[in-house]
Fold this protein.
Amino acid sequence: MTITANERSLQKETIATHLGRPDASVGLVNWPVHRGSTVVFDKVGDLENSGERKFEKGTLHYGRFGTPDVFAFEEVISALEGAYGTLCVPSGLAACVLPLVAFLKPGDHILVTDAIYGPTRTSLKQFIARQDVELEFYDPCIGDGIAELIKHNTKVIYLESPGSYTFEVQDVPAIVGCARSRGVITVCDNTWATPMFFRPLEVGVDVVVQAATKYISGHSDVMLGLVSCQEPYYRMVREAANWLGYHAAPDSVFLATRGIRTLAARMERHYKTGLALATWLEQQPQVRRVIYPALPSHPNHTIWKRDFEGASGLFSFVLDASRERAIKFVESLSLFGIGLSWGGYESLAIVSDPSKARTVTRWEEDGVLIRMHAGLENERDLIADLTKALALI
Ligand SMILES: *Cc1c(COP(=O)(O)O)cnc(C)c1O
């Protein structure tokens, strides 16, 4: 027997393993990959009918609008996020920008968290603002103070919690409360937590975007983005995806579907190892400050504890060292790769400077920010590697 999306009463681990599987006629546990452009129909009328319904969920019309294996994956994500519908798009960044293309018109105003993922900031400044959209950044920790920034032409509030490098946890329910009463649409980037640890739609957000490139795929071998919407916004987002000609590669969706089946187990381990590394680093004399929402020392720990069910493996810390020494530290690590992205099975470490990517808030810390991703290695090996590298500085 197959489980349907109506069975929302199931727990998230069960949804992730049972939903979106093929029915008995396929006979396999997993969907085969559907590669296709043309869809053929028996009758002219059938083709015309599918054309009229092409922006509705699960309509097989033409390859660009998705195939049954893609619809099945979208159904799993929708059930996990509590969304009416989800759309697969070519990358996480494509997912971040798509709702803005769908909702904003010339003359509109958008409020954007100042701790936003860098490439999304660039798209906003260099592409969205060019459409005569008024762009205004706000302090990620503003909470219901956002009410004072909402204007008559504010159309969208963009959230990302926690921030990509500096991990401010936003008071999403407070911001959403202000947005709802004034008819403003909220869009939230949920890449860090995944639906396993936070479901923004449950606290009233309208649209969730995320990079399935990260934890959902989980193996650093896929580029894929997801946009999950409440019902009023689903069609608008699908139409905008069509304007842009977006299409998600079926092999990427296959790998992301494989990823979602093990997401719950992986997230638990990333959380456990992330917390172990963060706790250990906090005790080292060379470390000024560890910025991880799951640590009681984090400034927004209470909000995290109220809204999240866990923390992922991505966090930062401030090393009490020159940039030169910080680079030496990172380059001396042997189990942590130096590279962008995260959410795969492997650990990573990069040197970063968030001060350049700020508009209304400041990043002023003595020392150098190191961003780490705790992978699925044994935590004792990771700590031994960190110990060795710290000793060198
Ligand atoms: C990586 C990332 C993205 C973009 O995802 P890509 O698939 O790399 O385009 C968007 N938002 C956040 C928070 C990310 O970390």
Q: What stands out?
A: The chain has a mean pLDDT of 96.
